[in-house]
Amino acid sequence: MKKIVVSICLLTGCLVFAAYLNAGSSVPAAPSSGSVPATVSQADAEAGTSTTVKSWTAQRVAQAIAAYLLGGHAAVFESIAVGTTGLTTASGPKHYVMSALTGGAAGALDSIPVAALATGVFAITAKTDGAWYIHIYDSTSAAAESSPDVIAPDDNAGNGRWLLRQTFSSLTLPNGTDAAPTTAAQAYYNTTNKALTIGDGTGAITQTQTIAKGTSALNTAEIASGNHATVVTTSAPGVLSTDVINCNPNADVHGVTGYAPSANGMLTILYYPTADNVNFLVVNNTAGAITPGAVTLNWQVLR
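Structure (tokenized):
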């Protein structure tokens, strides 16, 4: 009897199928009833180790290819298109690559039907803002939906949730203006307050960062007793009136006129923030006029 053998070839990422006869050059006549080998099982198709002659259906061929790719032989993860519906195997879960977390539209994580999911299925969501999320599906979870930590499928009224395992970005962190991380390894950057917040597994820890820094030269004109110099205002983009300024002279000033220790007193430097600026005001609380020497302050604003 002439046997038909199906071979699967992986060429430059394309799957090519070829059927050939093991002897002769003509296609055999249709087999008589009872002579067709039994259809290969899904398990055997995916294992790819059986040497018993079997019939193959298009479904079994697809399942064999899926198992082969998921086994790491030829899958290039970066080439999976956004919105792919995953690969089904008898022993392995599906995977999904989506373009949004919620909204229910095609490409959204919450649009995947519950019937297509099982515990262990994973999904990567690549949003247009540059943020990436990795979720694992847990069919037993009844956690309250809270994007991006917990995503509930739109067609599911019972248990079953996508649980966030990791989030990252090659360009920017997700904007945490309206949300704060509560689980470990999460991070958000609040573009409004310019604050980096990192979850520690129990709550959120806000990390201090430098908003602005620079130098400001104080005025040297005479300051009358009980009066003040002209305020020095220096541009500091991003600074808010609620911020705190840290500052100090850029050199030893204990010998500079007006700032040297004296029984009669010395000048006092006041400083305060305004929107996008830092301000420095020198006041004279002594009994006489003072013409101060040159002093430059180093300053920074942290948040």
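Confidence is low (pLDDT under 50) at residues 1-28, 69-93. Residues 210-302 form one domain.
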